[in-house]
Design a protein that fits this description.
This protein has 429 residues and is mainly alpha-helical. The chain contains 16 helices and 2 strands. It has 2 domains: 309 residues; 99 residues, Cytochrome Bc1 Complex, Chain D, domain 2 (Orthogonal Bundle).
């Protein structure tokens, strides 16, 4: 509330975060799972003395480094850019709470980047056993980065501490080891391995189609990681759902779309396992480019669906029990009802016009989820030519009672009246 608001017409700012974040997830999970697979297969090929198979992984490493380091870095910066503009209060809260965690993650990220370049550029110069150690260092550093980031994103979903309540202690570790930490880590580790193996399928199908023996070997060895990844991700998500707070279970039960997406997610995991078993596992020579592309699309869809469910389940919170979607702290609601929602500042003047004031309140209080005229959850169609101010005010006053995924009203009666006037003006248009 003490930051400028950012309005993205139609899409809304939070959905822009989702778009950038999901793209980054497709790359960042590959960075982790791909590192694990490269380390394991590098060790296997060196142990078996299979230079042809090891040379394939050298070629795959180029594709891996270009996608994860170059494109992954761009999308990672994109996430920071969008969350800082769309949810500045939540971003500040997470930085203050997890500054120690971010610092640790950045250390491992540097190790990860250095190891990735050494692994690729010195593939043939280093002794094979030394190179195996370098690839293992990359894999471990990448996985630890995933674990650290997962602790933070899991806290956003469920801030209850596994060992103690962070709200009482303020301790970093009590926030990091939250109820969702373990199941989310299991799910993301499985998703990383799954996605990485699917990327290998895709790369192999397009680059070594003229060497059927090598292609068959890649397919055979990647079948197990795909099945393992799909099952592990599904188990992690199932445990995550089971331990969610009661209010989240109620919100999910009342949201038809979330129920459909939950069924879709687990259905996709089952489909991936069946396709792998009756395809590459039983018939490793049957892999084709179209089949590899289809598998990757299934994997993308499963991971994106899980991310969407996690984001939707958080509502009305941006950071569970701390920062609401209306960009206010939970503990400030009662005070704001007395002192007022809007604030004068060097970059913002409160309008004297009632409707303009109401429009500013809408931007702060509602913009996080609702577009104005057209787009995501646009408010204008929901008004349905509503022109009874008292009825609108009553709905606004008890926002979170009929729909528990809505934040409570957090302003004065005068501001409530201003917002109602603004909504009526939209309805009349």
């Amino acid at each position: 509330m003490y930051y400028p608001w950012w309005y993205v017409p139609g899409l809304t700012a939070p959905m822009l975060i989702a778009v950038v974040a999901v793209v980054h997830v497709f790359v960042s999970h590959y960075a982790v799972g791909g590192g694990i697979l490269i380390a394991l297969e590098n060790w296997y090929s060196v142990s078996a003395g299979d230079n042809t198979y090891r040379e394939y992984w050298h070629k795959h490493a180029r594709f891996f480094v270009l996608l994860t380091v170059a494109f992954g870095a761009i999308t990672g910066v994109g996430i920071w850019w969008t969350i800082a503009l769309a949810s500045p209060l939540a971003t500040e809260t997470l930085i203050r709470t997890f500054v120690f965690g971010w610092a640790i993650e950045w250390v491992f990220f540097v190790i990860e980047i250095v190891a990735a370049f050494i692994m690729y550029y010195y593939w043939t110069q280093l002794k094979p056993n030394v190179h195996v150690i370098i690839s293992a260092i990359y894999a471990i550093a990448a996985w630890i980065s995933l674990v650290l980031i997962t602790g933070i994103t899991a806290f956003m979903l469920d801030s209850r501490g596994l060992f103690a309540d962070w709200s009482e202690t303020g301790n970093f570790w009590h926030a990091f080891f939250n109820i969702q930490f373990l199941p989310q880590t299991i799910a993301r580790t499985g998703g990383s391995v799954l996605l990485a193996a699917l990327y290998v399928f895709l790369h192999a199908a397009f680059t070594i189609k003229n060497n059927s023996e090598l292609l068959e070997k890649v397919v055979r060895r990647m079948s197990a990681p795909i099945i393992f990844g799909a099952i592990t991700m599904a188990v992690g998500i199932a445990i995550s759902f089971y331990v969610l707070p009661e209010h989240v279970h109620r919100a999910m039960e009342r949201a038809v779309l979330i129920n459909v997406l939950v069924v879709l997610f687990f259905g996709l995991c089952v489909v991936l396992v069946l396709l792998m078993f009756f395809g590459p596992v039983l018939h490793p020579k049957s892999i084709s480019q179209g089949f590899a592309v289809s598998l990757l699309i299934f994997g993308f869809t499963a991971l994106a669906t899980a991310e969407f469910i996690r984001e939707a389940a958080r509502k009305p919170w941006i950071v569970d029990q701390i920062v609401l979607g209306s960009q206010v702290y939970k503990d400030d609601i009662d005070k704001l009802k007395e002192t007022g929602f809007l604030r004068e500042s060097s970059w913002q003047k409160i309008p004297t016009n009632k409707i303009e004031r109401g429009g500013m309140i809408f931007m702060y209080h509602c913009n996080n989820c609702h577009a104005i005229e057209t787009g995501l959850s646009a408010i204008k169609p929901l008004l349905s030519n509503e022109d009874q101010k008292d009825r609108i005010k009553e709905k606004l006053r008890s926002l979170n009672k009929p729909v528990i995924s809505m934040p409570p009203w957090s302003g004065t009666e005068a501001e409530l009246d201003d917002l109602a006037e603004f909504l009526i003006s939209i309805s009349k248009e």
